[in-house]
Amino acid sequence: MNLQQLRYVVATAEHRTMTDAARSLYIAQPALSRAIRDLERELGMTLFARSGRGVVVTAQGRRVVKLAREALDAVGEIEALSHHAGTSEAELRIASTPNLEPGLAGRLLPAYAAEHPGVRVHIVRCDGRDAVVSAIREQRADLGLTDLPVPTDLITHPLERQEIVLISPPGLDLPDPVPMLRLDGLRLALPARGSVRRRELDAMFGKYAVSPVVVLETDERNGWLHAVRSGQASLLWYRGMAEQASRAGLVVRSLEPAVRRVIAVVHARRRLPLIAQDFLLTAEKGSAA
Q1: What was the pLDDT predicted at 289?
Q2: How far, in Å, CA of 134 to CA of 285, rounded?
Q3: Alpha-carbon distance 110 to 208, whole Å?
């Protein structure tokens, strides 16, 4: 058994399908299936059982997966020690969506840096929730900051509930808060069709039987703001961005009934580096303040 085989076992357990696991490992699916079979033959036990189009971890497999994660975590920590030998600075990688990055940079990072001045924090910028999840699964980030829900193979630490607000150009005749029914026929800039966030907004529109006029469909946040600033459309965004919108001369209104999303720090089901554990403590302490 080698480290590569351990990574194959953990990826298969996390993704629950050979196809998704192979994609995350950048190898062909038949090669992964063959490697898992060879390992099972070497160990004399069945690690995964077929279930429909996916796989489930067997009782013996769960023990092997747990030990494989611990072994990979230990190797990662040893490599980190080697990487930082001769320097006084460690690096913590945090994946974040553009909507939440201002709050991360403005509130959480200063509090963490004050207590851990020797740690350099690198923000892995992600287009959305799916990209945050991928960054963690592919070990390009130690932690992620995103709204929920996320897949169940990740561990979540809820921090706060952020309100979704309507950001509009000045001059619109709308009350504050805005009843959901007033979204019917309202010109909106929305995320791209087919994205997770767009599906969630479409579900909300369906719940209240409203049909906004879609002026712009894009995942580019700058495109959304440009559409609002130019008077073309309104935008549904987090309350945390309201200050930025107000400075730009835009009008921020609540919705009725209020819509909120849970913001959380998320990470993989593996032992975290100590610097990541310390960040979690700082974040949870700040959310309780």
Answers
A1: 46
A2: 27
A3: 40
Whether pLDDT at 32 is above 70: yes
Length of the chain: 289
pLDDT tens digits for 113-129? 998 888 999 999 988 88
> How many C-beta neighbours within 10 Å does residue 59 have?
8
Q: Which amino acid is at 95?
A: A
pLDDT at 79: 63
3-state DSSP percent of the chain in helix, strand and coil, to 5:
45, 25, 30
Q: Which residues in 20-89 belong to E strands, given as ranges?
A: 48-51, 54-57
Residue 242, class by beta-carbon neighbours within 10 Å (0-12 exposed, 13-18 middle, 19+ buried)?
A: middle
For residue 133, the Cα-to-chain-centroid distance in whole angstroms is 5
**pLDDT confidence tier of residue 217, bands split at 50, 70 and 90:** very high
Residue type, 284: E
- Residue 117 is classified by DSSP as T
Among residues 71, 9, 16, which one has the least CA distance to residue 46? 9
Alpha-carbon distance of 206 to 274, in angstroms, equals: 45
Strands 143-147 and 90-96: parallel
What residues are paired with 245 via a beta bridge? none
pTM of the prediction? 0.63
- Residue 38 φ/ψ, nearest 5 degrees: -65, -40
Asked whether 168 and 251 are in contact (CB, 8 A), the reply is yes
What tokens appear for 153 in the block? 């193979």
Query: Are β-strands 178-179 and 251-253 bridged in parallel, bridged antiparallel, or unpaired?
Result: unpaired
